[in-house]
Amino acid sequence: MKSPAQSPLAQQIRETKQTRVPVEASLKTDDRILARITDGIYRQPSSALRELISNAYDADATEVVILTDAPRFSTITIRDNGLGLTPESLEHLIEHIGGSAKRTLAGADLEVTKRGDPTKSPGGRKLIGKLGIGLFSVAQFTRHFLVITKTRGDRFRTVADITLGPVNQDERLIDPKANGESQIERGHARIWTEPAPKDESQGTEVKLLDLLPRTRDELASVDLWARIDFEIENEGRALTRAPYFHIGRISRKNPDELELPPRLPWNETHEAREKFEMFLQSVRVLADEDKALVDIEAVCDRYLQTLWTLSLTAPLDYVDNHPFDLSPDGELLFFQLANKTKGQAEPLRLKLGETPRKRLNLKTPYLSKGDTFEVFIDGVQLFRPIVFREQPKTQSAVSTPLAFIGRCREEFEKKPVDLSGGKLDFEAYLFWTPKVIPTQHQGVMIRVGNAAGVPFDRTFMGYQVSEQTRLRQITAEVFVSEGLDGAINLDRESFNYAHPHYQFLVKWLHSAIRQLTNRHKEVGKELRGKRLLEKGAKALRKLDLLVEQKVKARGIEDVPEIVLLERSDEKSASGLRREGKIVLRKRLALPARKGEKQTNAALQSLAFLEGKAVAIGQILHAWGLLEVLSFEDQEILIQDILEILMADAE
Q1: Residues 6+ away with beta carbon under 8 Å from 425
Q2: Which of 327, 306, 326 shows the shortest CA–CA distance to 318?
Q3: Which of 44, 83, 368, 386 is the most buried (most CB within 10 A)?
Q4: How far is 538 from 542, CA to CA, in rounded Å?
């Protein structure tokens, strides 16, 4: 760590323990970074909260608690039990926004990275943050916030009161240590230390004050309710469907009163985990009742949508099992994806109790044993809301979900690191189910360090082949353990499409989709064939019962056995007749069916036609009409009857 002489601001912060006089500091960065942050590179409030959650994860926190003051949203607090910020780390954060110490050798000195591996947190987690701008994503919410932080064993906590100023491109500061690079003053901070309560643990709290009106309105769904009001006033009724679940509505006349009470899928008596499970289950049940409600935006207001989005993008546990930890139980078929462009997915035949993780030695989510990370928002514990069991059924041939598992490591051995971006290592799954609920889960999500910057990409990274129906039935996640960092854009919600790692992933994913498509078609064909056979067998049993009923009506207890012979077996006819069996040669007893393709349906139709030939022969025998005819005439008679039955009525 730097000495106090090398860190004047950090030294001044430490001295406030005695002076009790706050230190004044300016926020400094190059104009490109912070100007873009404060001008709104983060598109939604959930994006800013996601960045603060990522900061906590990188600080080895095991718990994050967020309080939003919903539905008023006057103040938002984000508290974690991570490592906290030392004065040196805080100084670096303030004076080098956009110049994160993460993934650098300096990170270990500032206690933000693991010594010897700057890509990991001190506790060994794969780092999510990258540019050192996560904290300042709060510009989406407010220009004024507090940072209260404490490191382990410190009897004092550090408080930074930060105000972000407006962009002024003319106000530039030249830092002689920055090799002439242009910097701007982009805000102000007052920093001091104060004694910490004895029971206060380590961690960081970010308190967002004076939230911007547009942010409060976004979280409170003001525009949605206003549109409904307008429609009622002008049309006499609401044309826009009100959200089925919502956090409530503040009175337009009195901001301290609720005009509309909340309607939530849980109540306050439920535990934090139960609340989220009920949230997820309610969304799925509504989708079964109303097709329009398969969309989360049709079910929930913006606040609940924010919770759902955060649960998808944050590095959280699945609400049920990780897809790699599923085991075969008859409801799910597993396949292993090939890494070759024209490869084929092969069945992954798992033993009872065996999982894809065990069979393929999969490592996602790359956490140390016993490491946990939990996020709570207003008393609701978030989980990744993707489930793989008890999927909805449809009338499609394939009703059993299909899980395609893959892993790939690309060394780019023939390309220099400067051109390739280094090694790329990832694991992935593509999950096909007849109906994806909600629709926001259609597509692919790329996770780097077990977190994602953007929800599912429904285009599947620009997949061009016309597979619209099947694509709407796929949920996919790619878990990157090494590489792709250089392809993530500043907003962390998009990628540099030209980056070699991104291009490689595109090709791999599109190959995986083709493999899924081919296997899905094969499975469908097999299932349709099986169902046809079952249907045919059922029809033949029904035909047998009918014949038995008709024969018994003639006073005959035993239904005679009739044998249909192929041309190659006709030599055995005499011997079978001596055994008392009625023998019919197929080529004479059955109508000709030339030029018909040998599909499952055609084969099934032929089997039923043969069953009818046998049934007709048995009925004719019961009436004593076959015994007076020659063997050949018996066959011709049955063929004539079948041809009449098969004739089209035109």
Answers
A1: 408, 409, 410, 480, 481, 482, 483
A2: 326
A3: 83
A4: 6
Which sequence spans correspond to the domains of the chain?
Answer: 8-212, 222-260, 272-527, 560-646
Q: How many helices (H) and strands (E) does the chain have?
A: 18, 20
Contact by Cβ (8 Å): 109, 118: no
pLDDT-derived band at 176 (thresholds 50, 70, 90) equals very low
CB atoms within 10 A of CB 301: 25
pLDDT at 174 over 80: no
Token pair recorded at residue 265: 């899928």
Q: Do the beta carbons of residue 97 and residue 29 sit within 8 Å?
A: yes
Q: Which conformational region is residue 8 in: left (phi greater than 0), alpha (psi within -120 to 50 degrees), or beta?
A: alpha
Amino acid symbol at 206: V
Residue 133 near residue 37, CB atoms below 8 Å: yes
Q: What distance in Å separates the CA atoms of residue 108 and residue 124, rounded to the nearest whole number?
A: 12
Strands (E) located in 245-348: 249-250, 258-260, 333-336, 346-347
Q: Is 140 exposed, middle or buried (0-12, 13-18, 19+ CB in 10 A)?
A: buried
Q: List, for residues 589-617, the tens digit of each pLDDT value.
A: 888 877 666 677 777 788 888 888 888 98
Give the pLDDT mean for 501-508.
Answer: 95
Instruction: Let me know: does 547 contact 618? Beta carbons within 8 Å.
Output: yes
Q: Write the CA distances from 613 to 17, 549, 604, 623, integer angstroms.
A: 102, 17, 14, 16
Element (H, E) at 427: strand 424-432
Buried b (16+ CB within 10 A) or exposed e, 521-548: eebeeeeebeebeeebeeebeebeeebe
Give the end-to-end CA distance of the chain in Å, rounded to a whole number.
Answer: 94
Give the dihedral of Cα atoms 406, 411, 416, 421; nearest 10 deg. Answer: 40
- Got the DSSP string for 206-254? EEEES--HHHHHHHTTHHHHHHHHHHHHHHSS--SPPPSBB--EE-SS-
Assigned CATH class of 8-212: alpha beta
Mean pLDDT of the chain: 85
Which whole-number Å values give the CA distances from 487 to 99, 415, 422, 504, 506, in the listed order?
Answer: 17, 17, 12, 12, 13
How far apart are alpha carbons 453 and 42 in whole angstroms?
Answer: 10
CA dist 240 and 237 (Å) reads 9
Tens of pLDDT along 462-475? Answer: 998 777 788 999 99
pLDDT at 301: 95
Tens-digit pLDDT profile for residues 202-235 = 999 999 999 989 889 999 999 999 999 999 999 8
pLDDT in tens, 65-123: 999 999 999 899 999 999 999 888 888 888 766 545 444 545 556 777 888 888 888 98
Q: Which residue has the higher pLDDT, 644 or 66?
A: 66
The token duo for 497 is: 């499409």
**580 phi-psi bin (left φ>0, alpha ψ -120 to 50, beta other):** left
